[in-house]
Specification:
318 residues; Pantoate--beta-alanine Ligase, Chain: A,domain 2; GspK; cell inner membrane; cell membrane; 49% helix; single chain; 11 helices; alpha/beta; 2 domains; 9 strands; five-stranded antiparallel beta sheet; two-stranded parallel sheet
């Protein structure tokens, strides 16, 4: 009897272990199937978003091919919400101009021999603040330190540290007002003028300038051109756009009292780049479904009639 009891106990133990193994296998398989389904769904939504992006790019390229000198993205960049229908799905998107803005990454510029290229973006930043009647003692202090050590003493470790710290912090748009001690109300005035790109240039596309860019142009040109002349310049863009940057600046000289020698001196700064056919923009495509929300964020660089994808990122919230 004792042997039968032991045998029965062994059988029950084996059955119990097999039951646990089957349950574990079932749960693992269920999780694997669920993960597989999510992966397939995510790939499907990604293809939808990429398809919508492709439709938009084809539209832009087709529109660009009809223009001799410029691409007109204004109605897309300043339209808060656009819709593309694809495969019975409604995909919303918006475009963000990353060209005619103050690229905060220029504040990260540093060279072994501190030169005018280091100081220039900080002066532009101060001009932007001053044109909007905003003051920042913190910014003035940084400029003073950089200016006092220009161009001598290339090993300024304390300046380098502060410079790199400020530059890194300013890449976060919600930190600019805190770092420069600007109140929220004042910051809202200038927030649309800021952007962050991977390059370290201040790029202006003269054929994509809007009235709202007036103070930015003034700041970049160190206030050598006044607000009235800047407005006239922006509103005087030819129907087909400016053919060359030279024509753009020739117009400035003819229609304003600007000193062309001062402008030419500014243009020698390799950080400042005026162009008639180069641009950057970001697109955000969004698909909302019961299973979750999906976003495709892409960053583009355009030159002439060519557009290149610099990077993409898919975000899903399931």
């Amino acid at each position: 009897m004792q042997q039968r009891g032991i045998a029965l106990l062994l059988v029950l133990s084996t059955v119990f272990l097999m039951s646990i193994m089957l349950s574990t296998t079932y749960f693992y398989l269920s999780d694997a199937i669920l993960v597989g389904e999510k992966s397939k769904r995510r790939q499907f939504e990604k293809q939808l978003l990429l398809g919508a992006e492709s439709i938009l790019l084809n539209f832009i390229l087709k529109k660009n091919s009809t223009k001799e000198y410029s691409i007109d993205l204004a109605e897309l960049l300043f339209n808060p919400l656009n819709i593309i229908r694809l495969d019975d799905q409604e995909i919303s998107y918006r475009l963000i101009d990353m060209t005619n803005c103050f690229n905060v990454n220029t504040l990260n510029y540093y060279s072994d021999s501190i030169d005018n290229n280091v100081l220039y973006p900080w002066l532009v930043l101060r001009n932007i603040l001053q044109l909007n009647k905003i003051t920042s003692s913190e910014l003035n202090e940084i400029i003073e330190k950089l200016n006092n050590h220009l161009p001598a003493n290339p090993s300024l470790m304390s300046i380098e540290y502060e410079h790199n710290y400020m530059g890194g912090a300013l890449q976060l748009s919600d930190s600019i007002n805190k770092i420069l001690n600007i109140n929220d109300v004042d910051f809202l005035k200038i927030a649309p003028l800021f952007c962050s790109r991977q390059d370290n240039t201040l790029l202006i596309n003269i054929n994509m300038l809007e009235f709202t860019h007036g103070k930015l142009v003034q700041a970049l040109l160190m206030n050598t051109i006044n607000e009235s002349d800047t407005s006239k310049l922006i509103l005087s863009k030819p129907d087909k756009g400016w053919e060359t940057v030279e024509l753009f600046f020739n117009f400035i000289v003819k229609k304003s009292a600007v000193d062309i020698d001062n402008v030419n001196l500014l243009l020698e700064n390799r950080m400042l780049n005026f162009s008639h056919d180069e641009f950057y923009f970001m697109s955000i495509f969004k698909l909302v479904k019961e299973e979750g929300n999906y976003q495709l964020i892409s960053f583009f660089h355009g030159k002439g009639k060519n557009i290149t994808v610099l990077h993409r990122r898919l975000i899903s919230n399931e």
